[in-house]
Amino acid sequence: MISLGVATRSGLTRGLIELRQNLTNGMDLFTQFLWPVILLVALFFMRNGHFGGTGFGLGALALPGVMGMLIASNGIFGIGQYLALDREDGTLLRAKAIPNGMVGYLIGKLVTVSGIVLIQVAVVLIFGLTVLGGLRLDGPRGWALFIGVLLLGLLATLPLGAIVGSVFESPRSIGFVSFPVMGLVAVSGVFYPITSMPGWVQGLAQVFPIYWLGLGMRSALLPPEAAVVELGQSWRHWETFGVLGVWAAFGLTVAPIVLRRMARRESGSHVAARREKAMARAY
Q1: How do residues 64-117 score in pLDDT, each as one tens digit?
Q2: Bridge partners of 50?
Q3: Helix or strand or coil: residue 223?
Q4: pLDDT tens-digit profile of 193-230?
C-alpha cells in the first residue's frame, strides 16, 4: 500500500512536472499568460489617468486589484478545470484506484496552479514597479503583508476551485461559472475604486474574496495616503484577513466532503458516458 508520505512526495513531483510542461509548451504558455498580458496592456494605457482629484494614478490603483483577481480566478478555475477534464478522460478514476492516489493527485494540482499564480503575480508586480510608478514594497512589513495576503488568498480560493470541479462534470459546464465571477470582478473595485459605486454594490462585493484580495494587495503596494480612496478611508487589515480566513475555513471544510462524494461516484461507466457525450459534441 502506498503510504501518505509517498503519495505526498509523488504529488509534489507530479505538480512540478506539470508546471514545467505548462511553461515549456507554447500553447499552454499562450493560454496561461494571454489574459495577464491583456490586463498589463490595459494598465499601461491607464497609467496617465487619475482618480478624481486625489492625484493617484488609475494604473497604480488598479494593478493590486488585478493581482487579487488573478489569484482568485486561477484558484477557482484552475483547479476546477483540471478536475473536470480529468474526470472526463478517466485520469481521476485511475488516481482513485491507487491507495492514497487522490491525495497525490490533488497535491499535484495544487502545486501546479499555485506555481502558475506565483509566476503571474511576479510578472505583474515587476511590470508595476518598473513601468507604472506609484507602487512600492517597503521593508519587511510590506513584504510580509504582500506574502500573507497572497498565501491566504490561495487558501481561500483553491478549495473553492476543488468544489466547483467536483460539482460540474464537464469542463464546458465550468465556463458558465465565469459569468458570475466576472460580474463580481466588475463590482469589486479591481479597475476603479469601489467608493465610486452604489452602496448595495459595495455591500455585495465585500461578501466575496475578490474585493478583499484587491484591498490587501493595495495596502501592501500603495502609500498609506492612498487609503483615502477606500471605504472608511482605511486599509482594514483585520477585516481583510478575517474575511479571507472565513472563506479559507469554509473551503477547507467543504472541499474534502465534496471531493470524497465525487470520488465515490466515479466509475468506468460514468467515464465512458462522458466520453460518448464529448465525441457526440465533436461530431
Answers
A1: 888 888 898 888 888 888 887 777 777 777 777 777 777 788 888 889 999 999
A2: 57
A3: coil
A4: 788 788 888 888 899 898 999 899 988 888 888 888 88
User: Distances in Å between the alpha carbon of 191 and those of 120, 185, 254?
Assistant: 18, 9, 31
Q: Are 115 and 15 in contact (CB under 8 A)?
A: yes
Q: Return the amino acid letter for 142.
A: G
Nearest to 188 by CA among 227, 215, 224, 164: 215
Cell of 206: 465585500
Please say whether the beta carbons of 104 and 14 come within 8 A: yes
Mean pLDDT of the chain: 81
**CA 103-104-107 angle, 5° bins:** 85
Distances (CA, A) of 190 to 111, 113, 162, 199, 212: 26, 22, 24, 16, 10
**For residue 129, what is its C-alpha cell?**
514597479
**Rounded Cα distance, 59 and 64, in Å:** 9
90/213 Cα distance (integer angstroms)? 35
The residue type at 119: I
Let me know: does 95 contact 105? Beta carbons within 8 Å: yes
The C-alpha cell at 21 is 510542461
Produce one character per residue of 244-281: b if its CB has 16 or more CB atoms within 10 Å, e if not: beebbeebeeebeebbeebbeebeeeebeebeeeeeee
The amino acid at 3: S
Per-residue pLDDT, 279: 57
Q: Are 25 and 112 in contact (CB under 8 A)?
A: no
Q: Which residue has the higher pLDDT, 138 or 282?
A: 138
End-to-end CA gap in the chain: 42
- Is-contact 102 263, C-beta < 8 A? yes
pTM of the model: 0.85
